[in-house]
Every structure is written in C-alpha cells, then in structure tokens.
Design goal:
With 226 residues, the protein is an alpha+beta fold. The chain contains seven helices and ten strands. 43% of the residues lie in helices and 19% in strands. Pfam families: SCO1-SenC.
C-alpha cells in the first residue's frame, strides 16, 4: 500500500467516525430530556400533603348551618375540603379557616370545591352559633358548618382520627359544674386536620398544621384533575 492509498484510507475512517459520533450524543440527549419531562410531570402530580391510600371515611348526611343537607359525596362534580372545628375556638381554628380561604383564592372556582367544617363541640355549636361563625368569617356559600348530636358525629370523628376532649373533663359535678354554669367558655382540645376528598368522597390527602395554602391549593387541583 503506497502513501497515497494509506492517507485515503485514514481519511475514510475519520469520515466514518465523524458520521457516527453524534449518534450516541443525540441518544443521550434524548434520554436526558425524556427523564427531565418525566420528572417534571411526576413533580406536578406529587401531593404535598400526606397521601392516603383508599381511606374511605364514615359516610355522613347532616344539616349544615343553613339547614341544607350535606354529605361527603353529595356532588360528583365537586371536591370536598373537610376539617374539624368549633365556633368558640380562638387558637388553631382561625388559622385553619384563613389558610383554607387563602388556598381557595388561588384560582379555584367555588362551584368545584365545597368546604365542610364538622364541629367537635356539638353541645355548644347550636345552629345559631354556627350561623354567627359563618357570618363572622364572611364565609361564601360553598362552605358548610355542620353540627348535630354527638352520637352522630363521633363515628365521623373516629374515622378521620379526630378525638375532641373537653378540658374540664366529661363529668360536670360539684365545683366544675358551678364553674361551667358561670362560664361557658371552656376549651375543647382537638386537632384540626384538613382532608381533601375526591368526587367519590374518599380522602386522598391530609394536611396538618402548619399548613401551606399554596401547597393545599395545588393538592386540591391535583385531586380535582384525576
């Protein structure tokens, strides 16, 4: 093989290598972008709160503050935000109420989300007290404050891991009874979890304090899009 033939063969080999060299780079780039897109989609559908697997809470059908019958699966077109409070609560309840309101202002339409507040103090939360609570906070029409008899509410509390306790104890005799008669502002110790229920009334995600309204709003949107 003379020098001219050798040089020609080297040039051909270099040309061949230059032709196939970009292929692995393009392939790697494609894999990279596929992973990036998949990760982005996964992040968009990732629930910020505690994900619940097939948690179907106790089904309820009760009257709200306006005398309307509401259930945890009454409207297939809506998502339900469920929480537990009492009208005279001065600590966690105002914070949770404000957080939910802020979350629902982030582009969520009222007709697509209903908010159910179930009392943890049915003895004191009369229909009148419930109406005053709703008016005090200027809550819109898609909010329902729900009260009733303790025997009807306790199965709901239990199924959603809520265990309200009267700080004066269950017994109101003697001095405790006299104090209770003079001052009805006893404190109810409770948790205020916020559940997001899908259109079938199944709780899909749980938020507990401190609750980020932006994360809550995003979880509502994710559940609503499924």
């Amino acid at each position: 093989m003379n020098g001219r033939q050798k040089n020609s063969r080297q040039l051909s080999l270099r040309s061949l290598l230059s032709t196939y060299k970009p292929l692995p780079q393009a392939l790697l780039a494609g894999v990279f972008f596929a992973i990036l897109i998949f990760t982005s989609c996964d992040n968009q559908n990732h629930l910020a709160g505690t994900k619940l697997s097939n948690h179907k809470g106790y089904s309820y059908s009760l009257l709200d503050h306006g005398g309307k019958v509401v259930t945890n699966s009454s409207r297939k077109s809506t998502i339900t935000v469920l929480t537990f409070m009492f009208t005279r609560c001065t600590d966690v309840c105002p914070i949770v109420t404000s957080t939910i309101r802020t979350a629902l202002r982030n582009g969520l339409e009222d007709e697509k989300v209903q908010v159910h507040i179930i009392t943890v103090d049915p003895e004191q939360d009369t229909p009148e007290a419930a109406i005053q609570f709703v008016e005090k906070w200027n809550l819109p029409s898609n909010w329902s404050f729900i009260s009733g008899k303790e025997q009807d509410l306790r199965p709901i509390w239990n199924s959603y891991f809520v265990n309200p306790v009267n700080s004066n104890g269950n017994s109101k005799s003697g001095v405790a009874s006299l104090k209770s008669a003079m001052d009805r502002r006893y404190k109810v110790i409770h948790t205020a979890p916020v559940f997001v229920l899908d259109r079938d009334g199944i709780a899909r995600v749980l938020h507990t304090n401190p609750i980020d309204p932006i994360q809550l709003a995003r979880d509502i949107e994710i559940i609503g899009s499924r």
